[in-house]
TrEMBL record:
Residues 30-261 form the PBP domain. This is Substrate-binding domain-containing protein. Gene3D superfamilies: Periplasmic binding protein-like II. It comes from Chryseobacterium oryzae. Keywords: Signal. InterPro entries: PBP_domain (IPR024370), Phosphate_ABC_transporter (IPR050811). It holds the Pfam family PBP_like_2. The keyword Signal applies.
Length: 288
């Protein structure tokens, strides 16, 4: 009787262990949705593709959604990860920590930028920070953004110390549409995300770059471009750092993806996208 009882206990223990193993978190298999603004969808897709190549049993869907809406959907568990560029307010941080029950820990992975541009044949060659501030308060609405609630509008508003609703601007929906349509409005200035055009060897990005003139931003009598130096040193006034937020509390696919994106392999993907890796790895070569 005692032997039979011991045998039953061993079987129950084995079944419990098997169930725990099946339900235990796994970073190398499973499905996940990431919400990202269109302005930096390209780099997120590239990172997702790299992760799925490394872990073939994972399936990651990247969906474009306005930054603020993506943040709300992630809080409501409609996606595992939201990609952000602007700083959250103290109220939003508190909401995140209460709703998700996690400490606010942004996983920064790339330096991107908001760029101001005009058609290729425009006579304008630069833009001052003061012109941006004044222009966004003018009824002329000379600045054209890709939409309301977009990361570009939110970030520029934050940089000039205003709420998006207090700014005056025009809209052409979508970064690519804006670049292609701006030549119809030669007196206007377009505002898009750098990642839309940053891929150095992509034919579509190359075509878009050929249609626009990126304006240096003049601030404190110094001129800055969203190039490698401008992003790396964060001297370009509209440099922004992209980061991940997740609602996943264990080490499952979301945190596995985030770790991948922030380590050397993921940072190489960021660099190939034409953006500045946030985590710069120092390489040492020994000569003998």
């Amino acid at each position: 009787m005692n032997k039979f009882f011991i045998y039953i206990l061993i079987c129950i223990s084995f079944l419990n262990c098997s169930k725990k193993e099946k339900s235990s978190p796994s970073y190398h298999k499973g499905d996940m949705t990431i919400l990202t603004d269109e302005s930096f969808k390209s780099v997120v897709e590239a990172l997702a593709e790299g992760y799925m190549i490394s872990y073939p049993d994972t399936k990651i869907k990247v969906i474009a959604k306005k930054e603020d809406l993506g943040f709300v959907d992630m809080l409501n568990d409609k996606a595992r990860i939201a990609v952000m560029s602007r700083d959250l307010t103290p109220k939003e941080i508190k909401l995140y920590e209460n709703q998700v029950d996690l400490k606010f820990t942004p996983a920064r992975f790339a330096a991107d930028a908001v760029v101001f541009f005009v058609p290729k044949n425009s006579k304008r060659n630069s833009l001052t920070f003061e012109e941006i501030e004044k222009g966004l308060q003018s009824d002329d609405k000379n600045f054209i953004f890709d939409g309301t609630n977009s990361s570009n509008l939110n970030f520029v508003a934050q940089k000039v110390g205003k709420k998006p609703r207090d700014l005056k601007f025009s809209i052409i929906s979508g970064n690519v549409n804006l670049i292609e349509e701006l030549n119809k409005y030669p007196d206007k200035i377009g505002v898009v995300g750098l990642n839309t055009i940053s891929r150095p060897y992509d034919k579509e990005a190359e075509k878009l770059r050929g249609m626009m003139k990126i304006l240096p931003i003049v601030k404190d009598n110094k001129s800055f471009l969203p190039d490698v130096d401008g992003l790396r040193q964060m001297r370009y006034p509209f440099t922004r750092v992209l980061y991940f937020l997740t609602n996943e509390g264990n080490f499952n696919i979301a945190n596995g993806f985030i770790r991948y994106s922030c380590t050397q392999l993921g940072q190489m993907v960021v660099e190939k996208e034409g953006l500045q890796p946030y985590n710069i790895y120092r390489r040492e070569v020994q000569m003998r």
